[in-house]
């Protein structure tokens, strides 16, 4: 088995044109790459201190400029890719398809939103996705604490005490970015459509494993995922929080589409499964709070607090509210 760490190099060595693989990739993988792009920016802000007003502006736009609908769909898609790795669940989906036919399976999922998660292995599949979400949420909280701390330490830097000028213009520009969204980067689209990505996703869904994104950076020449862990993992399952079952059901349904193949579901069916109003609304509120925070800032060092609180911590809460 190829080392997980080598997947990014394999993707880069393939020599694909920036848009070629992206256009031929499946919708679920391409959507997950939007979430991956956001997480790659988190890596950058975690590893490089803010050293200029330009750094602050870049962090503000790259972390706070995501469209809430696109980012929500990206997280749901990433979760579904992980859930689709569960062997029992994959077997159950294929067995139902083989015995009753694909049309019957698709009809069952269309008529009952809970159908897919009730298949054998469905709960375990979703649990794996939630384990990855927990790791991501912890990572966002850690990044938020680091960025907010800089709001205090930067007060000693002369450039950071400079007046912003018109902070409302900055907030308006941020709103424009959020309306259009930030597209997934080509390297991450390529990586999520690579043949070996399932090995990486299975690792990410292991309870107790670190966040997949710690080695994924926009500055990297190739996407480098963490090497597989073989010990020291917590085997406790993550449970769906009361009232969040509809989100878990959507993850399971989208995972079933992934198992069946990109041609199984219609674009409308895939879009419906990855469109989740509650998470989208939470992310939208985070964006609005970020805009208000930035509009009220007077000096450069105040903006990192806004970034940490609303572009990082709030996002972690939005995706982290599904499990317990």
Description:
64% of the residues lie in helices and 0% in strands. The protein starts with 6 loop residues before the first helix and ends with a helix. α4 packs parallel to α15, α5 (68-83) crosses α8 (122-153) and α8 (122-153) packs antiparallel against α15 (303-320). The model is unreliable at 1-24 and 229-234 (pLDDT under 50). The chain has one domain (4-320). The protein has 324 residues and is mainly α. It is built from 15 helices and no strands. It has helices at residues 7-13, 20-24, 27-47, 53-64, 68-83, 87-100, 102-111, 122-153, 167-180, 186-192, 197-204, 245-260, 267-274, 277-296, 303-320.
Short key terms for the protein model shown above:
single chain; 324 residues; mainly alpha; 15 helices; disordered N terminus
Summarize the structure.
With 324 residues, the chain is an all-alpha fold. It is built from 15 helices and no strands.
Write the layout of secondary structure elements.
Layout: H1 7-13, H2 20-24, H3 27-47, H4 53-64, H5 68-83, H6 87-100, H7 102-111, H8 122-153, H9 167-180, H10 186-192, H11 197-204, H12 245-260, H13 267-274, H14 277-296, H15 303-320
Helix pairs in contact: 3-5, 3-8, 3-10, 4-15, 5-8, 5-12, 5-14, 6-7, 8-12, 8-15, 9-14, 14-15
């Amino acid at each position: 088995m190829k080392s997980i760490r080598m997947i990014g190099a394999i993707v880069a060595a393939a020599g694909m044109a920036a848009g070629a693989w992206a256009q031929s990739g499946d919708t679920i993988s391409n959507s997950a790459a939007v979430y991956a792009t956001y997480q790659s920016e988190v890596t950058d802000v975690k590893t490089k201190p803010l050293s200029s007003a330009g750094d602050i502006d870049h962090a503000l736009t790259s972390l706070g400029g995501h469209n809430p609908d696109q980012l929500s769909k990206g997280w749901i898609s990433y979760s579904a890719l992980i859930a689709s790795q569960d062997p029992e669940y994959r077997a159950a989906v294929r067995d139902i398809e083989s015995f009753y036919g694909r049309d019957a399976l698709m009809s069952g999922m269309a008529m009952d939103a809970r159908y897919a998660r009730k298949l054998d292995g469905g709960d375990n599949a979703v649990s794996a996705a939630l384990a990855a979400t927990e790791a991501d949420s912890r990572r966002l909280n850690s990044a938020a604490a680091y960025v907010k701390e800089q709001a205090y330490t930067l007060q000693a830097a002369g450039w950071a005490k400079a007046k912003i000028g018109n902070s409302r213009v900055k907030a308006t520009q941020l709103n424009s970015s959020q309306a259009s969204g930030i597209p997934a980067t080509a390297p991450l689209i390529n990586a999520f459509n690579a043949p070996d990505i399932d090995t990486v996703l299975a690792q990410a869904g292991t309870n107790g494993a670190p966040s997949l994104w710690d080695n994924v950076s926009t500055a990297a020449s190739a996407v480098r995922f963490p090497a597989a862990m073989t010990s020291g993992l917590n085997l406790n399952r993550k449970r769906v929080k009361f009232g969040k079952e509809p989100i878990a059901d959507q993850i399971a349904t989208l995972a079933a589409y992934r198992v069946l193949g990109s041609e199984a579901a219609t674009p409308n069916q895939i879009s419906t499964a990855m469109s989740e109003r509650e998470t989208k609304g939470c992310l939208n509120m985070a964006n609005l709070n970020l805009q208000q925070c930035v509009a009220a800032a007077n000096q450069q060092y105040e903006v990192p607090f806004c970034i940490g609180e609303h572009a990082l911590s709030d996002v972690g809460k939005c995706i982290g509210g599904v499990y317990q």
